[in-house]
Specification:
Helix content is about 20%, strand content about 35%. With about 140 residues, the chain is α+β, with helices and mostly antiparallel strands. The strands form 2 sheets. The chain has a 5-stranded mixed beta sheet, with helices on both faces. A hairpin with a 2-residue loop joins strand 2 and strand 3 (about 20-25). It is globular and about 45 Å long.
Length: about 140
């Protein structure tokens, strides 16, 4: 019998926006390789969500932000890989500098995209979160 309280992961994703452009990274060597996704990763046990957003942003891009504002949450339970995740998005404020690839085994490049011309090949778990961000919607059951 399955545990009534099965665990699932919490994804923390970051919207870095500058001059109408959003930062996306091209994934490699993992689920969604070749697609473009937000900086982010998993919330660690005992970690505050804003701390996770700051950690993931620094680990992946080398960027620091002055503050993090909640954007939206997506209940991502219908994934093709059978995994269930909560995807929590934060908007960063006060970022300076340019991103660098700090995890070359996981990301090919960071690139700025116009929010009105996003790439077709978006990372599947981030699609609804990005759509919510663009519409200003705080929640979705995907």
């Amino acid at each position: 019998m399955a545990d009534a309280y099965e665990t699932f992961h919490v994804g923390i994703n970051v919207f870095v926006v500058r001059d109408g452009m959003v930062l996306l990274g091209k994934r490699k060597n993992a689920y969604g390789a070749g697609t473009w996704g937000l900086p982010g990763g998993h919330l660690e046990v005992g970690e505050a969500m804003r701390d996770a957003a700051a950690r993931e942003l620094m680990e992946e891009t080398g960027l620091r932000a002055k503050s993090f504002e909640f954007s939206n949450v997506v209940n991502d339970g219908n994934r093709s890989d059978g995994r269930h995740r909560l995807q929590i998005g934060f908007i960063v404020h006060g970022v300076e500098g340019e991103p660098v690839v700090r995890e070359p085994d996981k990301c090919e490049e960071w690139k700025w995209f116009s929010m009105s011309a996003l790439p077709q090949e978006l990372f599947p778990p981030h699609i609804v979160q990005i759509e919510n961000f663009l519409r200003g919607a705080p929640f979705a059951d995907a």
